[in-house]
Write a sequence for this structure.
């Protein structure tokens, strides 16, 4: 059931994320419009990570981190910006004491932002109904080989520290919380090699996150501000996708890179196209409505044109369903999970084309 829900969520999230990225790449936007669009992109990424964490909790799946070399202060400021209006409306004052000499480190920016938002939400919920004005204090500092981030509030304090990071445990009213926020945050920080603790203070509670300082390890891969130039001139690609928004944004992106794109909205249309033209690469959705599924289309291609093996990229927002996961493992086909960043999408196509001698390395 959860994998099915994930599929239904990941498709529209793909449209939001990819359309936002395409607009950032192609449109001439004002600074304020760019900032708003970046908020949309960040929010869609957060939603994608929430879905991923739900799947992880349900299936014991290990989340793959995408680490970047960044400043923790910037991530904290971005998280606060998303919640600042809500805090102000509830008359909660925010005080910041952020170290200006904080070293950069390797973290998954979106995962860390999710942790920070969870902790800000936790403080907000503790203070929003208080008779006194709420005060949220954010602090960052360096302690030895670690970066320390503190979230202190003047709410009622922590009721049960032993159950603090237990999944589905919540002290909030029914319908007001899932009990997953702190548990998910604990898991994310632990996977980063850090620790997170919660303690009561004389004035309320403080949550402390400690992250190890890591040297930059991926200097040439997908770092902010670094954009690879892709040239797909001469590449003929078949895009099989029933979601119009995903198909249109992917096709537009590939066309700007010189790729000749043919689109098919169903497996049946894809069969017709393949019978007419030899394609260099096929990018196809694994789950499609109609008489023929994505799996059946792949099997037909392997029978009709065996030379296509190694030239097919599967797209799916449901990689954890038994049918999908078993098929991907058995077929050894390349795949990309929805929602995906366009840079990851382009890189996968580029590598496949070069590995097959279609494009020069």
């Amino acid at each position: 059931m959860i994998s099915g829900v994930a599929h239904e969520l990941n498709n529209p999230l793909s449209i939001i994320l990819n359309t936002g990225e395409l607009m950032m790449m192609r449109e001439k936007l004002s600074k304020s419009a760019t900032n708003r669009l970046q908020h949309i992109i960040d929010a869609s990424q957060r939603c994608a990570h929430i879905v991923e964490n739900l799947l992880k909790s349900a299936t014991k799946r290990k989340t793959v981190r995408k680490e970047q070399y960044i400043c923790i202060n910037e991530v904290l400021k971005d998280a606060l910006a998303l919640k600042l209006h809500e805090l102000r409306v509830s008359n909660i004052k925010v005080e910041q004491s952020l170290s200006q000499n904080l070293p950069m480190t390797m973290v998954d920016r979106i995962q860390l932002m999710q942790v920070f938002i969870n902790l800000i939400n936790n403080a907000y919920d503790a203070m929003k109904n208080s008779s006194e004005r709420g005060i949220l204090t954010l602090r960052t500092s360096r302690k030895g080989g670690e970066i320390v981030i503190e979230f202190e509030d003047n709410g009622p304090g922590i009721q049960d520290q032993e159950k603090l990071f237990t999944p589905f445990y919540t002290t909030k009213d029914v319908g007001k919380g899932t009990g997953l926020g702190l548990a998910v945050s604990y898991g994310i920080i632990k996977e980063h090699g850090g620790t997170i603790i919660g303690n009561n203070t004389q004035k309320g509670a403080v949550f402390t996150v400690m992250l190890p300082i890591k040297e930059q390890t991926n200097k040439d891969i997908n770092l902010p501000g670094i954009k690879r130039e892709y040239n797909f001139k001469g590449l003929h690609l078949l895009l099989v996708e029933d979601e119009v928004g995903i198909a249109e944004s992917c096709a537009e992106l590939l066309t700007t890179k010189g790729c000749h794109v043919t689109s098919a909205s169903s497996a049946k249309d894809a069969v017709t196209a393949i019978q007419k033209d030899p394609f260099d690469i096929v990018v196809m959705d694994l789950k499609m409505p109609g008489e023929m599924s994505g799996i059946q289309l792949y099997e037909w291609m392997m029978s009709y044109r065996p030379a296509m093996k190694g030239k097919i990229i599967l797209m799916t927002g449901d990689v954890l369903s038994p049918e999908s996961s078993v098929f991907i493992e058995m077929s050894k086909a390349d795949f990309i999970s929805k929602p995906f960043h366009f840079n990851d999408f382009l890189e996968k196509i580029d590598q496949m084309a070069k590995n097959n001698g279609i494009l020069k390395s």
